[in-house]
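Bug #77: duplicate submission created two jobs. Keeping one. Sequence:
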Amino acid sequence: MAAVADQLTNVMQKTARLIELCSALQEENDLLKAENQQQKQALESAKSTHLELDEKIRVLKLAKSIEGTSEKTLDIKQKINEFVREIDKCVVLLKK
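Kept job's structure:
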């Protein structure tokens, strides 16, 4: 009878341990889901910023082709460089 009681105790201990592990895994899963959602939002934000910057670059290129003055060309090149740096920052944020 003592052997059966020992086996029952052993089964109960293992069951309790499995319940603890399950709870820990569930918490980790919830955290990962939240992190995944944040990453999706960051990606969507970066995509929209990227599209806006692409549109600005397109407009600047069009303006450059219309206007031929060297002063405006230099100004446009500086703006394009600023946009490229901003895109690079977005890419770095996405990699994090």
